[in-house]
Amino acid sequence: MDSQRVRDFIVKEVADWDDEMLASARFKAFSGQRSDWESKFHFWRDLIIKISRYFGLLIINPSQVKNDWFNRGGLTPLCLDDVLFLMYNEGDIVRSEDLGDPTSSRVSQLFRKVRNLIIRSATTPEVISEDRLIITIMLKEKAAEVVKLLSESHWNSSCIITMKKFQDICGVPDEASAILRYMSGCGKAQYLSVHKKEFIEGVKISLSTAAVSSISNLDYDVLHLIWTTEKLQQQLDVIDRRYELSRKSALASLRSGNRKVALRYAREMKLATESREKCSSLLNRVEEVVGIISDAESTKKVSEAMQIGARAIKEHKINVEEVDLCLRDLQESIDLQKQVESSLEQTPSYTDVEEEDIEEEFKKLELAVGKETQVPTLVSQTTTSTEGKETLEATEFINDALSNLKLSDDGPAGKPAVRHVASIGDKKLLQNSEMEAA
Predict the structure, then answer these.
(1) CA distance 121 to 40
(2) What is the pLDDT of residue 414?
(3) Which residues pair with 161 in a beta bridge?
(4) How many other β-carbons are positioned within 10 Å of the β-carbon of residue 65?
(5) DSSP annotation of 347
(6) What is the pTM of this model?
(7) Which of 70, 82, 91 is nearest to 38 (CA)?
């Protein structure tokens, strides 16, 4: 992070930052009772959080905060070690090792929590200054952003994504690790991995207020399918780039008159097209399987909800007739609301207005619209006529050149024959191209 940008932000955010008397008081170390320096602590804490939120910093370096951010002509705040230590004790910042490791077993996580509690009680300001610190409020906000982003593309109460996808959403690998640790500790996410031909890592995330469900065997299969779709999509992107390069090269060769080279690039384009069709077909099949599994999970949720509703009806001794009566009353209320809305939407008839006045006003509107559309029409006609002449020749040349290239398997000795379909005025060119191909 550029420290100069941070210092410029501090000058704009703190109006009296350059006041020498206030600066000397703020830069002093803490002493005496907390009531004497509590306001100073709140100033530094709020300023650190403001800087982190403005620049989107989830993780901060204590040495950079002390020596670079608040450096005034070589002077640094003497109280920042105590400020960071108090923020750590009050939960405003945490260390990465304080968050549980989701990749370890439950027993290891339990031992780690007990160990952190013991170490936390013996933590000193010097230990805090040596480690990278995570802003807690930023951690919560970024975790909520991840859930919100995934909720926009998933309908179920939970989803499974690959670790690469999770890191792409979070932006930075270190931040992704911190967010995953935090979400796992809150019960909103679970780490899972599967060993196939490659080692695949993924995350199961709850998109509702409830905690994420436990990992099942189906989740591992879904992770493998989703990882396969991402790999196939990457392959499609590579094929598309290769096809576009071959196409540009073919056009350049045609413009230079080198038809043999253009033919070679045209063959590469055909091979790329065939490869894309096969890869796209496989991708559609895998996505169809993933969609079927997702629909099955949704159906299972609906079935469970119906069972819960039926059980609640039995427990409260509610008759089916009473439920039907409530539904009828609800439907009558809906019909009545629709009638009110339709009556409000109806426009009143204006019988008092003369037809001559309407015709005269309509003529005025026609004249106004005609004046407004006259100038844009003239401008559009002139621009289209000039631009059309410039682009028509180029597009006709490229399209004719590509359409004239056709591949056939009738050539001798395994060489593809080239047929040039030329216009009537290019008969001579057609004969020459066939002799070259032979």
Answers:
(1) 25
(2) 42
(3) 203
(4) 23
(5) P
(6) 0.63
(7) 82
